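Human: My hope is that you can spare some time for a protein that puzzles me. I am handing you a single protein, as its sequence and its fold in token form. Could you go through the record with me and say what the backbone is doing? Take your time, and here it is.
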Amino acid sequence: MMASRKRPVVVVTRRLPNAVETRMRELFDTRLNIDDKPMTSAELIEAMQTADVLVPTVTDQINASVLAQAGPNLRLIANFGTGVDHIDVQAALARGITVTNTPGVLTEDTADMTMALILSVARRLPEGTRIIPEDEWAGWSPTWMLGRRITGKRLGIVGMGRIGQALARRAKAFGLSIHYHNRRKVAAQIEEELEATYWDSLDQMLARMDIVSVNCPHTPATYHLLSARRLKLMRPHAIIVNTARGEIIDETALARMIEGGELAGAGLDVFEHEPTVNPRLVKLARQGRIVLLPHMGSATEEGRMDMGEKVIVNIRTFMDGHRPPDRVLPSML
């Protein structure tokens, strides 16, 4: 009788849903982060020196210098999340380490939250929720707490991938006119379904939108894609929403423009230096001029379970000697 194959050592850097952790313990020699504290660089390097598989999250910065200290057995980084901007994929591949992610499963959740932010900013929902608990409501008035109607407005989507398209479907149902900028046009059938207008020039699109939503990945090419110059192209009544990555927007320029009345507002679920948030943005939120959420766009029980299942499938497929279904290549970024 053949001896059973040795189970791979899988190091998980953050707490995952109980059902996911339990299944991973059943399948692999799994080392869990019970305290759920983000690993330091030293702790991450130590984990990578002992693991066959690393399961990191967005809070783990896996750059070339960290990868250079990985142990000889590390062959797979199975990221728990879609974005891989925290992983130097090129450096990993150069060391013979495969990188996978969990695409597709968070599309609907993130699109829901993006639409919620659009409504929250336009209709001043966070301000409204504070009025009654703080005993500041004197009764209805025709001119009090006026927001902006979104029906009939133009929505410009920066990045028309899965999430951008899911957002467009929701926004179309709310009567918004759909516009988008992408590296390339989407299929004609999708454009027709969404009644979406393609803009080759991001600058020209920004100058004509009432609402702008950021839904593209963070790559070197999209760092500060919405720079101070581009933000100034937007109209003073426009609002901007970001559920992608904080680094895509120049936060300092955004805060300055909202402070000066050059933009009407913003809804942000992600930040450039998470978990630190720009104090100017925090001040604007306290004044009710913008809406800030703590990176919860994909935070649903169903979404996290689906992510865990994808991680497990990627690990099992790789360990069986096959190409994992969600392999990430530099050409995809």
